[in-house]
Amino acid sequence: MSKIKSKKKAIIGWSIFGAIMGIILIFVCVYGIRWAVHSKTAETYGEYEFAQVKEQFDADNSEAFNAADFLNLFPSISIDENAESVKIMQIADPQIKFGSWTRDVKTMDLLDRAIKAEQPDICVVTGDLTLSVFTYDAFKYFADFMEERQQYWAFVYGNHDSQFDCSKHTIYTLLTKYKYCLFNRGASDIYGESNYLVNVFKGEKKAENLAYSLVMLDSGMYPEAENVALTDWVYDWIHQSQMDWYEWAIKGLQTIKADIQSSMFFHIPLKEFANMYYINEQSKGNEIPQAVKDALPNVTVSDVTGVVRESDKKDSEYVYGDDGYTVGIYYQGNAEGVTDHPDVFGYIKELNSTKGVFCGHDHVNTLKGFYDGVYLGYGLCCGYHTYPFFDREFFLTKWFGLSDQVLWNADLWTDENGNKMEKGVTVITVDMTSSGYGAISAVDNPDSFYKAGK
Question: How many other CB atoms sit within 10 Å of the CB of residue 348?
């Protein structure tokens, strides 16, 4: 009997092992097939060639410039001709994983209530819409959600959106099927694939009704260098070719409307976010590293709110802006050997159109304020699949010895008053009146705000 029982146990054991291996094999096969289908790319990218249209619509050559053709290069929305403001809902880092049977349900429930309450003119996803091995399904899940609500939305790439089973070409092909998605790949011969404008018109779409513009930029993923690893926490940057395009685009808009105002949206923050943080800390009498003091520019900051709760993931002291971040603001281009790293903020100041810059990326940072007259703001993270990954302790977190931080950085989600920070959205309002044209205000509305029926 004992031999028979042992044999039965062995059979059961091998059956369970075989079933588990079979499930893993099926998963690998399904993923492999999906990757083969969705990773296909076109030989060329982009909507148009910048080198060609730059000459055709050269803002410095009034004879060559055609306003209607220039504006038709980009998607647009129309608001009421008497509207006093345009409302933009920033959706930061949803990081959709698998869809309706996961914590994505909480993320989408938050967005559903926020959209119904705010009725924004447009939503802007500032990157990391997904972080999933099933990228295609995650994008489709989100796009279907927005289409059902007839909500116009735009999107810029983050550092996770095309990491797994989807090429950017496949994502673009998918998004073109949706009426309310205003995504545009942008120019084919500049860096990145989400460099475009979303123009706002008061009333009918025609040049004389141009009212405002949203500038979308691809801040990239990771530096293309053999000596840079993901664990170095070093990120890509906006490249010079994009700034050449930005200058051309703004000058084109200014040819149509001389005082055109705009906001800029991308994923990875500029170093000016860190500068603003430190200048504000210094103004409050707080000590900051000497290396930071020596590097800070002499600019004015004001109305600074929010927190920086990301921790520095490096273990030793680093020189500000050279080998490390010194504070948890993971800004662009902090890598050795950077050669194509333009002064993005310098372009913004020189062209005098963009008065607000909004990003995501650092999930537990909510820093906002005016830096040298330009509003810089993190969007409040909305993704319930971002860290901390669980609301409370349970047996898995205890097994892995992660009870205190609940699977990473849960302690960072407590503000200075001891209140636990929430997921939410950022609502940006831009003044469209003649007296206050272009003035920007932004507010973070947490999940509980909409649960309370605000």
Answer: 25
Which runs of consecutive H residues, i.e. helices, occur in 284-390? 290-295, 344-351
Residue type, 408: W
Q: What is the DSSP letter of 361?
A: S
> Could you give the angle at the alpha carbon of 184 between the alpha carbons of 205 and 152, nearest 5°?
60
| Separation of alpha carbons 19 and 218, rounded Å | 43
* Backbone angles phi and psi of 451, in degrees to 5: -65, -30
| CA 447 to chain centroid | 19
pLDDT value of residue 385: 84
DSSP assignments along 243-309, one per residue = HHHHHHHHHHHHHHSTT--EEEE-SSPPHHHHHHHHHHHHHTT----HHHHHH-----EEEEES---
The pTM (predicted TM-score) of the whole model is: 0.88
**To 5 degrees, how large is the angle CA 212–CA 218–CA 219?**
115
How far the first Cα of the chain sits from its last, in Å, is 69
pLDDT computed for residue 401 by the predictor: 52
Residues 152, 293: Cα–Cα separation, whole Å? 43
Rounded CA separation 72/57 (Å): 12
d(CA 87, CA 41): 35
Chain centroid offset of residue 99 CA: 20
The tokens 């000058």 sit on which residue? 251
DSSP letter assigned to residue 208: G
Contact call for residues 454 and 445 (beta carbons, < 8 A):
yes
How far is Cα 365 from Cα 209, in angstroms, rounded to an integer? 37
The sign of the dihedral angle between the CA atoms of 226, 232, 233, 238 is negative
Mean pLDDT by 10 residues, the chain (454 residues): 61 65 63 61 75 87 86 97 97 87 88 97 96 87 96 94 81 94 94 95 96 96 63 80 97 96 97 95 89 89 91 53 70 71 95 98 94 98 81 59 48 65 94 96 94 74
- Assess whether the previous peptide bond of 388 is cis (omega < 30° from 0): yes
